[in-house]
């Protein structure tokens, strides 16, 4: 059902403020591209983000890989998100019991809940992980995604595991669990008025994979064939040869491909 609706129309009907903001941004900037900024120096993170900002609806971080982390980095990311109109997604992949994840989300050096609009969790520990993160994130208007599927070869998130993830999201409610990391429309069996976001990593226009099990599909395969909402691209963009200029050009190329596939999906 969601695959035939415009992002803007979906925004208007959504009850979660972060999901609404993301969908509005996608419509306004004409982009379903999330850039995954997996570099290990604060200055390099900010350089990539400043470059790709015009082309993205979302920036995804792994804050625990930064070697010179200080709160100034996340403050600047938050400022850039306002200036350039994108959502920040800390790809933390929480995977512990409710009490522990609520501490990991709110505290430590990174204080993820303070600056990251969206984060994600493995459904593995059961619904307590969703509740535990919700205690922290819900009052702040944040949003949670569940990892229902993964892009890497041999992963265990398939079949009944995936179906249970979707059921857990439905039971938690879309004012907190707004969607999934998945490779396709895992929510297809839902009612017509249901709206989950599907964000999909493992996207590349050149490489087919890496040496560690990552598997890539094109933006068209992900958005048109599989009906996903957001493409997540890391090394395909920040790893491109040719310096800073090339990074924006490559982001713009993925943005154009992803948007074209979305427009074609609407007119199918
Ligand atoms: O199943 C997954 C889930 C995620 S969030 N597969 C993934 O690759 N990711 C993340 O997406 C991964 O942690 C990395 O940050 C990004 C993909 O990076 P790329 O360089 O392979 O595009």
- Indicate the percent of residues in helices: 40-55%
Instruction: Estimate the global geometry from the Cα principal axes.
Output: globular
Number of strands: 8
Radius of gyration: 17 Å
Order of helices and strands: HHEHEHEHHEHEHEEHEHH
Secondary-structure-based class equals alpha/beta
- Please state roughly what percent of the residues sit in beta strands, choosing from under 5%, 5-15%, 15-25%, 25-35%, 35-45% or over 45%: 5-15%
Unique ligands: 6-sulfanyluridine-5'-phosphate
Mean pLDDT: 97
Defining key terms:
single chain, 268 residues, alpha/beta, 11 helices, 44% helix, globular, binds 6-sulfanyluridine-5'-phosphate
Q: Mind explaining what this structure looks like?
A:
The structure is a single chain. With 268 residues, this protein is an alpha/beta fold. The protein is 44% helix and 14% strand. The chain has eleven helices and eight strands. It has helices at 7-13, 17-29, 42-52, 71-84, 98-106, 112-115, 128-137, 159-172, 219-225, 235-238, 243-266; strands at residues 33-36, 58-61, 87-94, 118-121, 143-147, 177-181, 197-200, 230-233. Strands 1-2-3-4-5-6-7-8 form an eight-stranded parallel barrel, surrounded by seven helices. Helix 3 (42-52) packs parallel to helix 4 (71-84), helix 3 crosses helix 11 and helix 5 runs parallel beside helix 7 (128-137). The chain is globular. Bound molecules: 6-sulfanyluridine-5'-phosphate (S5P). 6-sulfanyluridine-5'-phosphate (S5P) binds at residues 36, 38, 62, 91, 150-152, 181, 201-202, 214, 232-236.
């Amino acid at each position: 059902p969601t695959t035939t609706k415009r992002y803007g129309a979906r925004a208007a009907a959504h009850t979660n403020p972060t999901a609404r903001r993301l969908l509005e941004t996608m419509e306004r900037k004409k982009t379903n591209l999330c850039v995954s900024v997996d570099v290990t120096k604060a200055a390099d993170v900010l350089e990539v983000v400043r470059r790709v900002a015009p082309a993205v609806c979302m920036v995804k971080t792994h804050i625990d890989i930064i070697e010179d982390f200080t709160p100034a980095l996340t403050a600047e990311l938050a400022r850039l998100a306002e200036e350039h109109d994108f959502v920040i997604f800390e790809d933390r992949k929480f995977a512990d019991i409710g009490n522990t994840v609520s501490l990991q989300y709110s505290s430590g050096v990174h204080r993820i809940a303070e600056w990251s609009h969206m984060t994600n969790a493995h459904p593995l520990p059961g619904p307590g992980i969703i509740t535990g993160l919700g205690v922290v994130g819900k009052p702040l208007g944040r949003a949670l995604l569940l990892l229902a599927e993964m892009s890497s070869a041999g992963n265990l998130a398939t079949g009944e595991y995936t179906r249970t993830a979707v059921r857990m999201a439905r039971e938690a409610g879309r004012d907190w669990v707004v969607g999934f990391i998945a490779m396709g429309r895992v929510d297809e069996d839902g009612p017509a008025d249901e709206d989950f976001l599907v964000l999909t990593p493992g996207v590349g226009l050149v490489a087919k994979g890496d040496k560690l099990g990552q598997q890539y599909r094109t933006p068209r395969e992900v958005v048109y064939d599989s009906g996903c909402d957001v493409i997540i691209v890391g090394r395909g963009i920040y790893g491109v040869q040719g310096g800073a200029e090339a990074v924006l050009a490559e982001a713009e190329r993925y943005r154009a491909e992803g948007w074209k596939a979305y427009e074609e999906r609407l007119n199918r």
